[in-house]
Amino acid sequence: MIANSLFEAVQKTIPEQYKERTTEELQKRAEEIKAKLGNKLFVPGHHYQKDEVIQFADATGDSLQLAQVSAQNKDAEYVVFCGVHFMAETADILTSDQQTVVLPDMRAGCSMADMANMKQTERAWEKLVEHFGETIVPLTYVNSTAEIKAFVGKHGGATVTSSNAKKMLKWAFEQKKRILFLPDQHLGRNTAFDLGISLSDMVVWNPHTDSFEGDSHDGVKMILWKGHCSVHENFRMEHVQQLRENEPDRKILVHPECTHEVVRASDLDGSTKYIIETIENAPSGSKWAIGTEMNLVNRLIQNHQDKDIVSLNPEMCPCLTMNRIDLPHFVWALEQIEKGEPINKITVQSHIAKDAKLAIERMFDNV
Question: How is the beta sheet containing 251-254 ordered, strand by strand?
Fold first, then answer.
């Protein structure tokens, strides 16, 4: 597997001409190539992508939805994934060997996915089994590398999404007494709490010190990997308190990657899909503060001008790594495909893909 730290070395530098072209020129080229390639090209775009890129998406959705629709599209020879690296990996795992997955900018990573690597996870597993015995099943959020998905698949576990996390935790507890939840502690904690598990029965594992943070007593049910989303951790209690004081009639809607305190203090929480559907179904004139990535919040504001929508954090910026893919990189990727010389191909090694697919399929089988 290619580590994120090596992306700069692996990726060719984008030619200056792409940065010098006007937006109109780039948009025209994207339209021309899409029309020329037709069904041979499929462009999935994540909800968090920039408008300049998402306008060319053939499908929009969350990471797993997009990987699934990519795999279902048997006509496409090329899948140009407008998202981040772990999403493109999942698409490569689920698509056929005859399909090529391209990531327009290899620097588009995910800080959360980078918070759990294979060496850390193998060390942790050895220590956790030594401490708790063979009582643990691993689950990983789909926002993780292919290697972590493979580790989980190999050890009888499965992947989860923010939409199906409750179902998958219920399934996991039918397998073993305890769950190791990677790599986002907040989604794990919030989901387990919703299922009635006490915070006192959860403990954090710190992969940097190879130790527990908290009481690792025999009643522990959730072992939470010390990872987080750098975007969603920036929605803080001070933002909730300010809104409650200044605009008590504004509902607060957040993603479960936010901290436990923020989720508990909000009116509603749920996956990206849930957030979108909640706003779509909300009455005209309703007021909302949303705690999720800024590109999506801005798109919701634009698409629902009959509603009063703001970001929960007024100083929030878009996800930096999600923002890596821009129109110049997108057109560069398309033109290289047009030439028959695709760049930034995402290829997951077969032995890793095999075990990772096991984890993904266990999820599909149980939701």
Answer: 268-269, 251-254, 287-291, 308-311
